[in-house]
Specification:
326 residues; 34% helix; single chain; Rossmann fold; alpha/beta
Amino acid sequence: MPGTGCSPHHILLVKTSSLGDVIHNLPVVTDLLAHFPSARVDWVVEEGFAEIPRLHPGVGEVIPVALRRWKKRLWSPATWREIGAARRRLAATPYDAILDTQGLLKSALVARQARGPRLGHNADSAREPLAARFYDRGFFVPGTLHAVERNRRLAAAALGYSLGPELDYGLPRTADSRQSLSVVLLTATSRDDKLWPEGHWVNLGRALASRGLTVLLPGGSLKERQRAERLARQIPGAQAVPPMNLSGLAQLLAHARLVVGVDTGLSHLAAAVGTPVVALYTATDPGLTGVLGQGWFRNLGGRGQIPAVQEVLTELVPFLPPRPAR
């Protein structure tokens, strides 16, 4: 247990959202089980992202919450029944350690519903300093570190172990993605200012198709599917992929030869499954939250910077098959 020198047997992680943040927390599970092999690690997560912790074989129970949906329907009796059920579920199990790596007031309040010592960032480290008041112990982690390393450093400090250098998301990986002839282009993101120009996607897709690769274009919402279909019509042999759940998308990314994506959680998922990935940034700085993988990855662009097609292709050259003989 924290502060006693004893190994924790039952640990609860609190990282509810968003998709990229949840993926960034997966290495914490791997680290914990490397140091406490007999421990059970449970996870509280937003219902829409519950498939991600379930992909890690080391996660025990996944406890979904619906903070986003509840906030929109706060005056509904059904919402309060669901909140009550979630509180009872969290309180039903005693934990040796409850670790909130999110550092927000909402995540701290979720952690407060569980039974056991509550650990998290201190007021100088938390994204929302008020959250630190709800922990039994707080720890400082430099804000200059990448989000993945902040999560890992916090867990190591809170549970009292030395952190090794190896990064491991713990997700199943394909044996050799270079045997694949598919390339996944992730063109959709949460904000329009994060999009890469459609003409750039077409030129990139055509260059990849000329090397004998099949371009796959996932899309979730109607708007995203329409974009994927529009691009697919302009790229030889390209396919607009039907909507998939997160587990299906993880498999699609894991079996691809390459992934190129904008600033979206799925680009982080590609890195987590070990597929070579180029992430494109146009409105945000990738320094602290860019793609960070176990294998090869690149972050291109930044705030107000739009990566050129040739810049992307130059990075991809080592992974491209030879040009087909004419």
